[in-house]
Amino acid sequence: MDWMISTPLILLALGLTAMHGRETRWDLLGALMGLQFMLVITGIISQESGMTYAYWIGNALLLGVFYLV
């Protein structure tokens, strides 16, 4: 439950640090935070219900986070 809040905020801090001294791209930061939030949700769903499609959706979301970072 804590990860739904903390991991998007960690990505926000990382993004703001990386963009220090430049124009802040809020669209990119919002996309990263949204993908990370959905990644945590699909992980919880996959863990609790054992639905394999949630696992694969989570992996696709992780690839999206990697791509944007």
Structural summary, described in words:
- With 69 residues, the chain is mainly α.
- It has one domain (3-68).
- 83% of the residues lie in helices and 0% in strands.
- The chain is built from 3 helices and no strands.
- The chain has helices at 3-18, 26-49, 52-68.
- Helix 1 (3-18) packs antiparallel against helix 2 (26-49) and helix 2 (26-49) packs antiparallel against helix 3 (52-68).
- The protein starts with a helix and ends with a helix.
Short précis:
By secondary structure, this protein is mostly helical. The chain contains 3 helices and no strands.
Topology, element by element:
Blueprint: H1 3-18, H2 26-49, H3 52-68
Helix pairs in contact: 1-2, 2-3
Number of helices, where a helix is a run of at least 4 consecutive DSSP H or I residues: 3
What ranges have pLDDT less than 50 throughout 5 or more consecutive residues? none
- Shape descriptor reads elongated
Q: How many angstroms separate the termini?
A: 23 Å
* Beta-strand segment tally: 0
Radius of gyration: 13 Å
> In this structure, how is the largest beta sheet organized?
none
Computed structural class = mainly alpha
Q: What string gives the helices and strands in order?
A: HHH
Q: Mean pLDDT, as a whole number?
A: 91
Kindly state the percentage of residues in helix.
Answer: over 70%
Strand content: under 5%
The number of distinct structural domains comes to 1
